[in-house]
Amino acid sequence: MPITNKSILMAALCAGAFIGQVKAQSLPPVETQKANSDYKPAVAGQTRIGGTQTQTKLNVMVINKQLKSPWALRCLPDGRFLITEKGGAMKILKADGSFDKNITGLPAIAVGGQGGLLDVNFDSAFAKNRTLFWTYSEQADGGFQLAVAKGQLSADDSKLENVQVIYHAKPAYNGHLQFGSRVVFDKQGNLFVSTGEHGAEDIRMKAQDLGAAVGKVVHITRDGKPVPGGPFAGKSGVLPEIYAYGLRNPEGMTMNPLTDELWEAEFGPRGGDEINIIRPGKNYGWPVVTYGIEYSGKQVGDGIQQKEGVTQPIYYWDPSISPCGITFYTGNLIPEWKNNLFVGALGGSHIARLVIKNNKVVAEERLLKDKNERWRSLVTGKDGALYGVTDNGNLYRIGK
């Protein structure tokens, strides 16, 4: 091909774009504070990876300021938003953020502490069966526990019908902390549900107990039964619905659209927040293995960060950012974000953008730190923008 001014210009532009990308990926790490411990990562790049910076000029808008402690945010097939509020309300907002519907018919919810109405998701065949699944804390013998329910949304979107409670994450505990929980569907329409271990020293070891449903990811059918052929199926004294274990407070969970693998955000103790790829039968260590310490400053257990048979996180934070809802960006509005993982940070008051390559975090960015918001849930909208709800009751649109 003959060399022309045009080809030289195109080569220069491509080289410039490449150099710009390299420069963006080689920024200093975004975390500059001192870690809580002197623990060392198991592999290079497992924490404090180099920074990156979004080149697209972002347009950030609050499109609803009237929510009350929103917990879950989903984008319905028609572009509207399905939202839960921890106090017990479920509602639909229009695509522009304005109010549309209140949804009634929920079962009794035990609201208190970190408990209340939590996640919601719609069936993969929602257009035909109108089925929603949601999680919430309920009162039970011995205290409180996570429950999973389902019901059909009425034709006018105003109430849930044929409501059934399909699963209880036992044992119950007399406390209101760390219930998890997210609901994600596999390709067959079965449910992955994450459960917290209730955040107390006298129950946290249940995260390692295969006879207990706390501190786990469970894999259940639409009717709440164990999905056949699970990693612990047929083993005596073991709950067959357990898919993975050794989790503390898994408040974020989503499917990677490129690999169809389940990713989880782990709310650690003081330090030790994690991003994990959840695989069948794997042990993720809590509370035996962790990069965090107790809030008191003491080590957790024996202070172990690596152990045979325990799966390492692909990434962790120390100090904590308190990760909550996570989502992979699947829109086309901001191409440089494609398939990046976005993590809502509560204590960190920002959205973490993680650039992923070959199942490893290769760059990190902190977005909207200036808003001083606790980001509870994130989703890609039908228009390709990123949407997020915050504990202050705001629904944000982040796009162009």
UniProtKB/TrEMBL annotation:
Keywords: Signal. It comes from the Bacteria. Gene3D superfamilies: TolB, C-terminal domain (2.120.10.30). Residues 1-24 form the signal peptide. Residues 67-397 form the Glucose/Sorbosone dehydrogenase domain. SUPFAM superfamilies: Soluble quinoprotein glucose dehydrogenase. InterPro entries: 6-blade_b-propeller_TolB-like, Glc/Sorbosone_DH, Quinoprot_gluc/sorb_DH_b-prop. It holds the Pfam family GSDH. This is PQQ-dependent sugar dehydrogenase. The lineage of its organism: Bacteria, Pseudomonadati, Bacteroidota, Sphingobacteriia, Sphingobacteriales.
